[in-house]
Design goal:
Oligomer: single chain
Distance between the termini: 18 Å
Radius of gyration: 14 Å
Structural class: alpha+beta
Strand content: 25-35%
Number of helices: 4
Length: 136
Amino acid sequence: MMLDNNRRDEAIEVGYKAMLESPELVDRVNFSLNEFKAVCDSKGAEVWGFFDKEPAGMCVLDGNHPHIVILKKSHGKCGAQIKTLLGLFLKKHRNLVADVHKDNKRAISFVEKLGFRFSSTNGEMLIYILGDDHVF
């Protein structure tokens, strides 16, 4: 598995596909692929892809908020690359923030395994923080 930030369109497409196949996210994906690309572009978000022989997932860094989605067939295969990427992001930001819906048990488990710590709530969202003192 490798990381690549030069294959932006491929990464966005596979990220959109991963959201659609996720039972936790599919009901909240009320936008098209083109709208998703436009939002990533308008925010100037940093987009990284996870690639094996084929695209496996993506991470969008929106400010200090990483958003990670992985295709089901690639779950469990991107851990080292995710940790590497979060380490790179922590060199740019003192803290990373993960907003997770309170009912998304898989995402809660995922961010906690990565070392994010619960901080607060904002409506139905749980806010997790990963500090720059974290070591992977």
